[in-house]
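> run fold Flagellar protein FliT
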Amino acid sequence: MTIAPHLLENYQKLLSFSQEMLRLANEGQWSELIQIEISYASTVEALARCTRDNPLSIKSLEQLRPVLRHLLDNEREIKQLLAKRKDELNRLINQSNRQQSLMSTYASNSGLVLVPRDI
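> ok
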């Protein structure tokens, strides 16, 4: 028994979305990645429904193994890129908070003349 053509087509579509998401993540196009991720998630849901009703045979899974491996590899790389982006955003937020705190401190002391004291 071979895999049904519509299932294979959906797995290929999923792989295409995954490759596009990886490309966008590498290019830092985060908004575009989110748009593709919506289609990716929809395709995953469709495949889950389809395979829940008609589980794949061992032979079909063997046929899909290269596609599944590629999907997992892409997902791992995308997660790594997203983790880097998250760290970058956290750094920017922390920097902004420090600047805001500094400006607040400066503003509260503006107009004061600070004179060194004798020790």
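The radius of gyration is 25 Å.
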